[in-house]
Amino acid sequence: MSTQIAVRLPDEMVSELDELISTGEAPSRASVIEQALRRELRRYLYEREAKILASTEPDPELDAWISWYSTQPMDLD
Q: Engineering a disulfide at 26: which of 13, 20, 41, 72 sits with its beta carbon 3.0 to 4.6 angstroms away?
């Protein structure tokens, strides 16, 4: 299910968006905006998790896992 919403964007940003579509780099305005929003929401989630981790007592097992995980590539799409 999806919900349609209206957003106002600067003309320049819409032009850049339309350029992506006209060159075939993106299928639609909605797809680019959805992908960008998904990435931003994920960033907020990671930031919130980092704050939680920073406020907890040290955990050697968790620290080892974080060290290993931080070297792994991230899929941001």
A: 20
Average pLDDT over residues 43-72: 87
| Residues 6+ positions from 9 with CB-CB distance below 8 Å | 17
pTM listed for this prediction: 0.65
Rg of the chain, C-alpha, whole Å: 18
Distance (Å, whole) CA 12 – CA 67: 41
Phi, psi (rounded to 5 degrees) for 12? -60, -40
Question: What 8-state DSSP symbol labels residue 70?
Answer: T
Q: How confident is the model at residue 77 (pLDDT cuts 50, 70, 90)?
A: low
